[in-house]
Amino acid sequence: MELQIKVAQAVNVLNHDAQSCNRVAANQWLIQFQQTDAAWEVATSILTSSDHLRRLFPHLFADFEVEFFAAQILKRKINNEAHSLHSEAKDMLLNAILLAATRFSSGPPQILTQICLALSGLILRAAEHKKPIELLFQNLQTLLSQDCHIAVLEMLTVLPQEIIEDQSTDDSLNSAQRGQLSQEVSLHLDCSSMLCNFSFSSYMCDEPQLLSHTCMVLQFLHQQSEKSIEDIGRLHETNRRILRCLLSWVRAGCFTQVPRGSLPSHPLVNYVFHSLQVASSIDLAIEVLVELVSRHEELPQVLLSRVQYLKDVLLMPALTSGNEEVVGGLACLMSETGQAAPSLIVQASKEALILVESLLSCVAFPSEDWDIPDSTLQFWCCLASYIIKLDEQDVNMRLEAEKVFIPIFLALLDSLLLRAQADHLSYGTDGGSHELSDGLLNFRTSVAELLIEICHLLGSNAYMQKVSLGDCISERLAINWAQVEAKLFAVNAVAEEVLEQDKNIVLNVVVHLVAILSDANSDPHLLKGFMCIVYRSLADVIGSYSKWMSTLEKHVRPLLLFLAAGLSKPVSASGCASALRKVCEDASSIVYDPSDLEILLWIGEGLDKHHLPLEDEEEVVTAITCAVGRLPNNEKKHKLLNSLLSSSYDAIGRLINGDEVHNVWQNPAYTQLLNSAERGLYRMASVVSHLGTPLSVGPAADDPLLVSLTVFWPMLEKLFKTKHIENGSLSSAACRLLSQVIESTGHHFSAMLPTVLDCLSSNFLLFQNHECYIRTACTAIEVFGGRKDNGALFISIFDRFTHAASIVALNSSYICDQEPDLVEAYVTFTSIFVRESPKMVLAASGSLLEASLQKAAICCTAMHRGAALAAMSYMSCLLEVSLVSFLESMTTISEGTFSSVAVQVISNGGEALVSNLVYALLGTSAMSRVHKCAAILQQLAAICYLSERSPWTAALCWQSLHGWLHSAVHGLPVEYLKQREAETLVPSWLRALAAAASDYLESKACNSGKLDFGHMQGKGGRALKLLIREFADSHRAYQI
Questions:
Q1: Is 44 strand, coil or helix?
Q2: What's the rounded mean pLDDT across residues 52-58?
Q3: Helices 772-784 and 728-745 meet at what angle, rounded to 10?
Q4: On the CB side of 376, how many CA atoms lie within 13 Å of its CA?
Q5: DSSP strand E in 785-844: where?
Q6: How far is the C-alpha of 362 from the C-alpha of 371, rounded, in Å?
Q7: 255-313, pLDDT tens digit by residue?
Q8: How many CA atoms lie within 13 A of 541 on its CB side?
Q9: What is the pLDDT averaged over residues 525-541?
Q10: 429 — pLDDT class (breaks 50, 70, 90)
Q11: Cα 793 from chain centre
């Protein structure tokens, strides 16, 4: 009794003590207590015999909190530890839980649910010795004999969920148990005799299976549904329990073996229909019918036959009274019905049209949120798609369907536009700081697909006429801006479909709207609040229809001014920036109109005052660069670009020359100068990136890219030597610009390459948390790595990075997880170095390759997914390049060649590589690494297999792989492996590796030794991957 009292006291403190320190202490004690063997006995005693404790200590056992906690303990311990209990202990525990179920059969319901979950969990884990479902139904018969019908209902409710859903993710069930339960879930029983006299014990068969008990379970539910209960509250609660139980069995597939044609007249189906009329059970009744409709093709016809009743008796009163719960449930049910059988709806019977009209009224229903219309969208999409496809099958049927349903879809479009409107009165006028609600945004995202289907069905002309803005803006003083904004959304949603169907689309009303809103810009009191959202929606339309808008040459200037003005409003800035880029990409006429170019440069010069997000600034700079880049005159092009970037040059120059302020890091003026320089670097990078493709061999001397090169690099070189570059954001911006310059200018940059790489590596050594320097070096190697004369230069950079203190410190998975960006940058650099460098350069890099391989092996054990996979990609890349080299020089390997160096690298690093790969397959994150691990092991096995017939067999052979694998497996802590797993794992993996290696080499022979960087090869490779996946899956509970 002493422990029971301690548990009760701890639960009381946890739930009610005012001091947080006391609650924390109680929680820690309870967690530790749950791990003890005594928890079994204490929990069962509390659940079976706590009445005397309640009398002695009423303040501790109030509200059944202790009993609920005890039930939770049992459920958790059963899930985690039941497999280790002896059969006698399981039997005693089973009897105790049955006694608890009897005791709490009448409530509280939360405790009963936990007890039933514990009971089902315990019985399922008895599958090693008995037929668990058979055992459970025997015990249900015991509960029935004690008149515990509520407990039986709850047990029958949770059982299918536990078996069908939970066992697939339960690691405590072994493969034999899973197979047993899977077999028991099968259904082979004819249910035609389900209305026989009910008795659980009399219905057991020789081959007990979960669903083989369907008939008696349904009969039991039927008997419970017919019971007369005088207490209205108990009656409603019992009905809900019956429906919950039936729902659980329907989801398990209980009606799949009911004789065809008998389901519509089944008494329980009729019971569900009657439950629709009861307010307390309509929600569950709808859930059951939705499941039945989606699973059984007979049900849609049955529901259609009763749709008049559903509409008149249930839907119309709910619409009138504003009962959102009932309207939403019926909308979902009718939508599922129509979606399950669109062919019945297209026949346009009286019942089908009633269903469609009912759903139209649900869409138009003025609910507070958008859940009700959203629940019908898939039905409308399905119906429209079905009608469209009729054109391929039966043209006449398509025409008949269009005649009936096009008016319906036009009415639907009206309702959707109404529901897509924002409540503009709820938006303030304080400069447009508000946004559309998340609910409306989500609804619009969902409805966009339906609008495209409607446009396809109606045709673009009919659709655009329906959503025409002309009527909305005929009288300026009476403009309904909420309606205008919703129609702009509808026009924007179908842009691709409209432009594809109709090349001559007319959007003059958009130009008219541009004029109206441009006039509003002159009055600061007009363009605020909701009007900024209208402004953005109009900008979105301009961007989506830019190909058409740009053909209206006389309107390009107003469009540019309109978009320029929108950049000053936070709500509309992003949409206007994107639209500006699209217009400049499509409007080639801009380059022939000096006034248009002047507007663009004026926009660029005003960027500093807008403080746009960097991604929006990039859109604007890209737009200007795109227009300027079309100019045929390089001198004029350079002059305009120089004007665009003059403020950027000035900001960077002031930073470089303003050394007197760098010591005052918190100085607001310095921070502003730093931000201005960073933005300038990003703008310069955008110009270089979008000015043109990489230069050809012989460009004009005055090409803007070459001219820019003479300006950018000296400026960057000075910046990299200042103390300001310690700032991470500034370093990233400078490296981004340098990367773009290297990519765009190509071989014209080669003369500066040694200086640039020296600068990058030196700065990385100074600021080793700035991995951007390594990433920029990656760009340089990608562009110049193939040239032999750069080999020594790149080796020296490789050496600097590898021996940097931050890289050397990556000696554990924990540290790798602290620096995932650094890991990714370094292993990406090594991958590019190995992939791009000539063989002679790789041969001279042996010690660096060995060190980097060992580092990657450590990094692949990191919990961070990106870092681990990047490390594995490098390992796979190195093995692939090595294997190709081996195949090219099978018979003769001279000292100093890359093949001989690769043999030494793999021989020295193989043990660490295999060991860390095995470690990487442990824990919850291992499943994402299965493919990479399998590919690496297949490549390594292919190399060792190949080495058996080569001159380097003394240094590297199949026995080497055997030893590495044996060492890796036996080096794992004993608690990470199952009993005798180490003895069986190594031989089975070696057999799979041998088959995978053979397939890999065969694929190489057929593919002429081309690089493919680790894709699984052949049947053997797939078998190896399956074996590794099973290992990772069975060891997810073990965390390294």
A1: helix
A2: 61
A3: 10
A4: 25
A5: none
A6: 11
A7: 776 777 778 888 888 999 999 988 888 999 999 999 898 888 888 998 999 999 999 99
A8: 28
A9: 85
A10: low
A11: 42
Give me 156's structure tokens.
Answer: 């029958």
At residue 168 the predicted structure's pLDDT band, cuts being 50, 70 and 90, is very low
The 3-state DSSP class for residue 232 equals helix
Q: In angstroms, how far is CA 208 from the centroid of its own chain? A: 41
Of 204 and 568, which is predicted with more confidence? 568
Kindly tell me if the per-residue pLDDT of 78 is higher than 90: no
- pLDDT > 80? residue 161: no
Contact by Cβ (8 Å): 896, 843: yes
Q: Which residue has the tokens 């071989």?
A: 747
Whole-angstrom distance, CA of residue 573 vs CA of residue 412: 33
Average pLDDT over residues 792-802: 95
Q: What percent of the chain has pLDDT over 90?
A: 38
CB 574 within 8 A of CB 610: no
Q: In this structure, what token pair is assigned to residue 409?
A: 């879809």
Rounded to an integer, what distance in angstroms lies between the CA atom of residue 983 and that of residue 1005? Answer: 35
Name which residue leads in pLDDT, 652 or 144: 652
Residue 944 exposed, middle or buried by CB count within 10 Å (0-12, 13-18, 19+): buried
- d(CA 846, CA 843) in angstroms, rounded, equals 6
Contacts of 406 by beta carbon, 8 Å cutoff, 6+ apart: 457, 458
- Using CA atoms, how far apart are residues 354 and 855, in angstroms rounded to an integer? 69
Query: How does pLDDT run across 313-364, given as a tens digit for each residue?
Result: 999 999 999 999 999 999 999 999 999 999 999 999 999 999 999 999 999 9
- Write the DSSP symbol of residue 311: I
Query: Residue 576: enclosing H or E segment and its boundaries?
Result: helix 570-586
Residue 665: both structure tokens together: 């890091």
Residue 194 pLDDT more than 80? no
Q: How far apart are CA 196 and CA 129, in angstroms?
A: 31
How far is Cα 259 from Cα 249, in angstroms, rounded to an integer?
17
Tracing tokens 């040059």 back to the chain, one arrives at 649
Helix (H, G, I), strand (E, B) or coil at 979: coil
Rounded to an integer, what distance in angstroms lies between the CA atom of residue 118 and that of residue 81?
12
Token digits of residue 948? 């058996």
Average pLDDT of the residues in 883-892: 79
Q: Phi and psi of 253, rounded to 5°?
A: 95, 30
**Distance between CA 940 and CA 932 in Å, rounded?**
12
pTM of the model: 0.77
Give the Cβ contact number of residue 566 at 10 Å: 27
Name the DSSP class of 198.
P
Hey, what are 874's tokens?
């490098």
CA R_g for the chain: 36
Instruction: Tokens for 176, please give them.
Output: 């034999």
In terms of Cα–Cα distance, which of 180, 213, 181 is closest to 199?
213
Q: How far apart are CA 964 and CA 906, in angstroms?
A: 12
- Residue 173's pLDDT is 47
| Token code pair at residue 541 | 């339309």
Residue 860 and residue 930 in contact, taking contact as beta carbons nearer than 8 Å: no
Distance CA 339, CA 813 (A): 51
Structure tokens at 107: 């409530």
Whole-Å CA distances, 269 to 225, 233, 292, 996: 11, 23, 9, 55
